[in-house]
Amino acid sequence: QGSSSAASVVYKRQTQAVFGTNPIAFSAPRADDAPIVIDMSLSKVARGKVMLANQQNEKIPEGWAIDNEGKPTTDPKKALAGAMLPIGDAKGSALALMVEILAAGLTGSNFGFEASSFLDAEGDSPGVGQLIIAIDPSFFAGDSFGERTETIVDAILEQPSTRLQGDKRLEKRKLREKSEKITISKELHEKISILI
After folding, report:
1. Is 35 exposed, middle or buried (CB count within 10 Å of its CB: 0-12, 13-18, 19+)?
2. pTM
């Protein structure tokens, strides 16, 4: 699955955002365990992390973003006014371009630089696109797909101190389901209470 979104990521070493964070997701079933789920943006970090740093008046690491003049910044306010950097530099730019073409170009939706922001009510609807491709693994691999997936999972998990992408999130979900509680800060509770 790939999504286009409002422009916030530069192409290679440019200074103006042309792509959205263009999240991509992938899921594959396993033989006897929860599926492998990979969900990530194509910027160095999710834009939400920069927004959170801005709300908490904290600096961001250098290498996440540039300001509106194209200079590296650790100031989240300047980063939000500027642009995010792509994951993996040129290779990340290529992936973002691919997702932009598939999720916006192929579907007739707005490219990132054409879409309005999700962060305010200015302008028209963002009009971004989604591309979802579903594959029945049994069509290609018969009944062996789950077992084949476990072969690579086992090779990964044989290494010390290793876990699969998403395992930490699954562990937290299980704990929360067991306790039926989610702990939030007092400040967040107050903000939510105002909205209710």
Report:
1. exposed
2. 0.79
